[in-house]
Amino acid sequence: MNRRTTAFVVVHMLTVKILASTLGPVGAFHGNKTPGYWKQYYHNDKVATAWGETGYSPNDSFNDIFGVGPDITLMAALNSGGGGVMALLRHATAGLLNAAHPDSVYWYNSPGDVIAAVQAAYASGDFEDSKDLFEYFNMEE
């Protein structure tokens, strides 16, 4: 990450921590979830319930939702391996689900914010900085 991105992450990380400490955990779902958590849809009833609460389905099209990227399902995006754009697909999908979950305190305020960030990454061709932000905030509890 460059200096500007690092400063941006630090400021927003503090904001998320303040919000989380003020609001406290809500319901059984708290903290942000990684791509690995969301991939468990077919093997874990709690994860399947969490997906349902987001309004998204594992079979929804990444491209239909984000308006960019490959025509693969959200589950395929979560399962995508590798770096670069593939890592962005994985972490952006987890970010979308975290932002959409009603009990999550996520730094991106809404799915629309996540979608806009992914569209900006595609427009600029800089997938790494966006992936780094998503990865960082997906692991923030």
Question: How does this structure look, described?
Answer:
This protein has 141 residues and is mostly helical. The chain has one domain (3-138). 62% of the residues lie in helices and 0% in strands. The protein is built from eight helices and no strands. The protein has helices spanning 3-23, 35-38, 45-54, 62-66, 74-78, 85-100, 111-124, 127-138. Helix 6 (85-100) packs across helix 8. The longest helix is centred in the N-terminal third of the chain and has 21 residues, at 3-23. The radius of gyration is 14 Å and the shape is globular. Mean pLDDT is 84; it is low at 9-29.
Helix-strand pattern, N to C? Answer: HHHHHHHH
Report the biggest beta sheet as strand number plus sense, adding barrel if it closes: none
Overall mean confidence score, pLDDT: 84
Helical fraction: 55-70%
Strand content: under 5%
Distance between the termini: 21 Å
Q: pLDDT below 50 for ≥5 consecutive residues: which ranges?
A: 9-29
SS-derived structural category:
mainly alpha
Counted up, domains total 1
* Radius of gyration using CA atoms only: 14 Å
Shape: globular
Summarize the helices and strands and which ones pair or pack.
Blueprint: H1 3-23, H2 35-38, H3 45-54, H4 62-66, H5 74-78, H6 85-100, H7 111-124, H8 127-138
Helix pairs in contact: 6-7, 6-8, 7-8
